[in-house]
Automatic annotation (TrEMBL):
This is 2-hydroxyhepta-2,4-diene-1,7-dioate isomerase. Keywords: Isomerase, Metal-binding. Pfam families: FAA_hydrolase. PANTHER family: ACYLPYRUVASE, ACYLPYRUVASE FAHD1, MITOCHONDRIAL. It comes from Hymenobacter edaphi.
């Protein structure tokens, strides 16, 4: 099982981090040890002092595919969930300033909390109009809608599959909207798709 992630997929998030707008999806990966499931707590590591939350819609791949045409890409995922791409922002900035890969800032243990359930695609009336949000200690921190994506689900799947074979069970984190910010020990992070809670993670 692979965890593939899309960076810079929401214009306002790109602006808040002062990044350039990419002309193609930005792809990075997390190891399976990054997964944090069943609302397990996240334990703040000692190699960073600045972890940021990034809430994202997550696609679950339902069959193997490579060189997938965009018009058929919707048949390669069967469910949508919600997760967090936790990012050690201080470590990421240090690595980027040296022109180095920043996997360590994205792929550390527990950096991909994932909701306990996935919702079948058939239960979403419009895949280009999915509301989701993150609340931290009951306060709204991030709000997004799939319509705001620079690259939609089909584009993402088609693009990735030109380089990397997708396999059943793979997960794709589709990017985060604006509002990212730091978390701290004692925080409670609750994520929603529409008004349905998908994860409830405490920071220890």
């Amino acid at each position: 099982m692979k965890i593939l992630c899309i960076g810079r997929n929401y214009a306002e998030h790109i602006a808040e981090l002062q990044n350039e707008v990419p002309d193609a999806p930005v792809i990075f990966a997390k190891p399976d040890t990054a997964l944090l499931q069943r609302n397990q707590p996240f334990f703040y590591p000692d190699f960073t002092q600045d972890i940021h939350h990034e809430v994202e819609l997550v696609l679950r791949i339902s069959k193997n595919g490579r060189h997938i045409e965009e018009q058929f890409a919707h048949t390669y995922f069967d469910a949508i969930g919600l997760g967090l791409d936790l990012t050690a922002r201080d470590l990421q900035s240090k690595l980027k300033s040296k022109g180095l890969p920043w996997e360590l800032a994205k792929g550390f243990d527990g950096s991909a909390p994932l909701g306990a359930t996935f919702k079948p695609v058939s239960e979403f009336p419009d895949l280009k109009n999915i509301n989701f949000r993150l609340e931290v200690n009951g306060e709204l921190r991030q709000r997004g809608n799939s319509a705001m994506m620079l690259h939609d689900f089909s584009k993402i799947i088609s693009y990735i599959s030109q380089f990397i074979t997708l396999k059943m069970g793979d997960l794709i984190f589709t990017g985060t909207p604006s509002g990212v910010g730091p978390i701290k020990v004692g925080d409670r992070l609750v994520g929603y798709i529409e008004d349905e809670p998908f994860f409830d993670v405490s920071v220890k």
